[in-house]
Amino acid sequence: MNKRSITVIPGDGIGPSIVDAALKIMDHAGCNFHYDYADAGLMALEKHSELLPQSTLDLIEKNKITLKGPLTTPIGGGFTSINVSLRKHFNLYANLRPVVSFEGAQSRYKDIDIITVRENTQGMYSGAGQTRSDDNTHAEAMSIITREGAERITEFAYKLARTEGRKKVTIVHKANILKSTSGLFLDVAREVAQRYPDIETNEMIVDAVCMNLVMYPERFDIIVTTNLFGDIISDLCAGLIGGLGMAPGANIGQDVAIFEAVHGSAPDIEGQNIANPCSVILASIQMLEHLEMQDKAQQIRNAVRKTIAEGKSVTRDLGGTATTTEFTQAIIANL
After folding, report:
1. What is the fold, at CATH topology level, of the domain defined by 113-240?
2. Is the pTM of this model over 0.90?
3. Cα distances (Å, whole numbers) of residue 27 to 1, 31, 35, 241
């Protein structure tokens, strides 16, 4: 049987070690992939004098599926976010961030199961129209929402609800104040919701969502929202299950999909073999589900769940003392 090729971007800081953990686990589960490695971030800057080389873009385009570690974008003028650049280049319009409680994880809540569906290419987060006056007294940025963009992401959320057997979609907005951009998003989302009478629809202003997520997280199932709100809400949701180390992310377009750890590159613990690889492992599970390899996805998910619940070989953020390598080996043993 021919092996399917996927592009692997190890990333910066702890990236290479946690990506390697995910690949080892997929190999032991018999996923039968061929890995094409590509550079991006600081590693690419050192090797190729650019953060996102054309060769990397070509590999992503060729294989259509990419697993990516965390990347560092240098702070300062002239450097645009690599993640934003990838989303724009490949029109990865849907950002999918599921959070699920794991028995044994260090968190305040149990039974959390929320998916944030975030529009990934428009709104304030896209970086459009950013200017700052020469005397540093005035700055501007532009937020653009299109009917096509709002319809596409809302359709994605409702189709996901049907596919996953979910009961409710919460449309998150700030249309009471941002009447143009958020108003258009809400109007279009309402139109889409009417096509899905089998799915309960709820509308909520973004600040109320943040409060309710902390007080009554069980009220949420699928959240759909604009770019900046989705970025903030998805991190808040990660906090409900123990932090960004337990939160994967998928960036999905028409043809190309990139699955990633959503946390940073953590250069302060690079090379110490203590990072929790779960974010990339869970991203690889998202990738397997996207490739309709549900049996392999479930096999790995069960092994991760068992390992964390046992608590014998888990990393320090999960309450243990295991190294990244030991944690990975424990998951492999539980496959």
Report:
1. Isopropylmalate Dehydrogenase (3.40.718)
2. yes
3. 15, 6, 11, 27
